[in-house]
Amino acid sequence: MSKKVVLFTGGGGLLGGEFKNLIPDALFPSRREFDVTSLSMMVSYCEGKTIDTVIHAAAFTSPPKVDKNAEAALDTNIVGTSNVVKLCMKLDAKLVYISTDYVFRGDKGNYREDDPVFPVNKYAWSKLGGECAVRMYEKSIIVRTSFGPNEFPYDKAFVNQWTSREPVSVVAAMISRLLDTDFLGTIHVGGDRKSVYEYARRISLGKEIRELNTKDVSFSVPADTSLDVGRYKSLFAEKKKD
User: So where are the chain's domains?
Assistant: First the structure.
């Protein structure tokens, strides 16, 4: 792993838990000492510290809850991300922004990094708003991905939704490899295209998973947000040759 000093926002989340194992020497400030909605608080926390990379994973992530509280998503996912960009500008630190596959319409799948984006719910719009802020800073990486717990937590899964989702341990390891590269820009991180049901059965550890249709839920769900991860594979194929 890189010897550089890494600061991770959202350390209390699923991805943060994995990174605490991967990079135990990184900084994982709590929200009480590092609230992304307060630029002055973040600047104060970083005073006297040399920070090379900021991994920004803190976010309001529940689509149904965002639909009910769009203001909180604006504050955290758009304004908060803008504040993190400003912080990285002050620190001259690389920024790694954790985005989502939901920025795509979900009508074709195998999306490439340069395919048109069109979110289908307010959560995804807020994450795309964060991407817009990150694009204002050249020293940045936008990681579009999808992950879940290492064991599927539900007893039902969508049979008609397609994804590149992988367990968080897999995605965290893939993202951590990016830290030791010179890559900048947008990159898709995940596995091969599969239904959420297939994914759930693969990591259910023997638990029975029942079929669920996207028409049976009250919130909007894109049909196919699977990602083309060829850019990621090519990046590390080239590194292997070197």
Answer: 6-147+166-191
